[in-house]
Amino acid sequence: MKKIVSLLIVVALFCSCSEYQKALKNEDVAAKFDMATKMYDAGKYSKAIRLFEQLASSYRGKPQAEKLFYMFSQSYYKTKQYYLAGYQFEAFVSGYPRSEKVQEAAFLGAYSYSKLAPVYSLDQTDTVKALEKLQAFIDNYPNSEYVAQANETVQKLNGKLEKKAYENAKGYNTISDYKSALVAFDNFIADFPGTPFKEDALFYKYDSAYQLAINSIPQKMEERLHVAQAAYANLMKFKSDTKYKKQADEMNARVETDLQKFTK
C-alpha cells in the first residue's frame, strides 16, 4: 500500500510539473493565468513568478489584472525579493487605488523596504528610504489596521540610525579625533534627545573635551579646560550617580588643578 501511495504521489508531481512546463510555453494567456494562480495558491511562488512575468504586459487594463498584480507582488514578497516586492506593491497601489487590497499593499510595499535595512554598522541608505516609505503610509492611512505595525517598524529603524550615530561619534573618540568627536556627540544628543545612550554620549563628550584640553598648547588650554568643565557639569546634571562618576571626578580634579595655573 505504501508503495502504491508513493507511486501516486510521484505521478501527481510529474503531471503537475508537466502541466507547468506546458503552461510556460503555451501562448494561451488564460491557461497561463490559471496555472499561475494554481502555483500561487499552492505556495509555489517562484514558479508563479515566472508565469506572472510572462503575463504582466498582456493583462494590463484587463478585469483580472488587479488579482494578477496583487499575486505577483505577494509572490515577490513571499520569496523575499524585497526590492521587487516594494516596486510591485507601489505599482499596485498606484494602479488600483480603490482596491480592497490597497492598504495592505501600501503597507507591504513600505515594509518590504524595511526588510532591506542592514545592521546599524553598515550604510543606512535603505533604512532612511524605508522610514520615508513607512511614514508616507502612516500619513496616507492613519486609521489603517497596519499603522501599529508600521509605527513599531519605524521605531526599530530609528533605533538603527540612533545606534549608528552614537557609534560614529564614539569612533572619533576612540581614534583620538577629539574635535570631530565633540561635534558628533553634540549632533547626536540634539538629534536623539531621548536616547538610551545619552549617559554614555555625555561621558564620551566629556572625555573628548578633557583629552583635547589636557593635550592642548598653552594658548588654547584654558579655553578648552572650561569646555571640559562644562561637559562634566552636564554629565553630572543629567545623572549625578553616573556609572562613570569615579573616572569623571578624577578627570575633573585634573581640570580644576590645571585651571588654577591660569588664575595665578
Verbal overview:
- Helices cover 78% and strands 0% of the residues.
- With 264 residues, it is mainly alpha-helical.
- Residues 10-14 have low confidence and may be disordered.
- InterPro entries: BamD, BamD-like, TPR-like_helical_dom_sf.
- Keywords: Cell outer membrane, Membrane, Signal.
- Residues 31-218 form the Outer membrane lipoprotein BamD-like domain.
- Pfam families: YfiO (PF13525).
| Radius of gyration computed on alpha carbons | 30 Å
- Mean pLDDT comes to 90
N to C succession of SSEs: HHHHHHHHHHHH
Helical stretch count?
A: 12
Helix coverage percent: over 70%
- Label the overall shape: rod-shaped
Percent range for β-strand residues: under 5%
Total beta-strand segments: 0
Low-confidence stretches: 10-14
Give the termini distance in whole angstroms.
Answer: 103 Å
Structural class: mainly alpha
* Main pleated-sheet profile: none
InterPro entries: BamD, BamD-like, TPR-like_helical_dom_sf
Organism: Flavobacterium ginsenosidimutans
Domain Outer membrane lipoprotein BamD-like: 31-218
Keywords: Cell outer membrane, Membrane, Signal
Task: Furnish the topology, listing elements before pairings.
Layout: H1 2-25, H2 29-41, H3 45-59, H4 65-78, H5 82-95, H6 102-114, H7 125-140, H8 147-174, H9 178-191, H10 198-214, H11 218-238, H12 245-260
Helix pairs in contact: 2-3, 3-4, 4-5, 5-6, 6-7, 7-8, 8-9, 8-10, 9-10, 10-11, 10-12, 11-12
